[in-house]
């Protein structure tokens, strides 16, 4: 029996496409000299940057502004152990242009946890990579089908 690798490296174009299919990911940054990870609402802008919506009262926007950060989003199915994961590294900056802020707000981009008018941070991708995990062979076949409700 030939081994079937369940991990497929994704092209940058496919990674960017997949990012546009989910509303929430995790931003990874440094806060007080320690790694920090925060789930955030985001969208992929027309220019390819990721725009993160953060609570105005959080310290995350300040910690991200002018730094290199990472962003990760995924869709994983625990039943079949399949899905995908995309990781982006890039330069982050607070969106300071008031017209751009208004446009993002009017388009409905809001922090995942709500709150007052958000602060937006744009992450310019410099490294983009990802993997698709496929259910293969016995792993997929050995799992019972979910019961109908």
Structure characterization notes:
The chain has helices spanning 12-19, 60-64, 98-106, 137-142, and strands at residues 7-10, 24-31, 34-44, 50-54, 67-77, 82-94, 119-133. It contains 4 helices and 7 strands, in the order E-H-E-E-E-H-E-E-H-E-H. The chain is of the alpha+beta class and 149 residues long. The radius of gyration is 18 Å and the shape is elongated. The chain starts with 6 loop residues before the first strand and ends in a 7-residue tail after the last helix. It has one domain (7-139): Pnp Oxidase, Chain A. A 6-stranded antiparallel beta barrel has the order 2-3-4-7-6-5.
Provide the CATH top-level class.
Mainly Beta
Q: What is the fold named in CATH at topology level? A: Pnp Oxidase, Chain A
The number of distinct helices, counting runs of at least 4 residues, comes to 4
Compute the number of structural domains.
1
> Architecture, according to CATH?
Roll
Inertia-based shape: elongated
Order of helices and strands: EHEEEHEEHEH
Main beta sheet, described?
6 strands, antiparallel, barrel
- The CA-CA distance between the termini, in Å, is 37 Å
Low-confidence stretches: 138-149
Structural class: alpha+beta
What Rg do the Cα atoms give? Answer: 18 Å
Strand order of the largest sheet: 2-3-4-7-6-5
Estimate the strand proportion.
Answer: 35-45%
Global mean pLDDT: 89
Summarize the structure.
This is Pyridoxamine 5'-phosphate oxidase family protein. This protein is of the alpha+beta class and 149 residues long.
Task: Annotate the secondary structure layout.
Blueprint: E1 7-10, H1 12-19, E2 24-31, E3 34-44, E4 50-54, H2 60-64, E5 67-77, E6 82-94, H3 98-106, E7 119-133, H4 137-142
Antiparallel strand pairs: 1-7, 2-3, 2-5, 3-4, 4-7, 5-6, 6-7
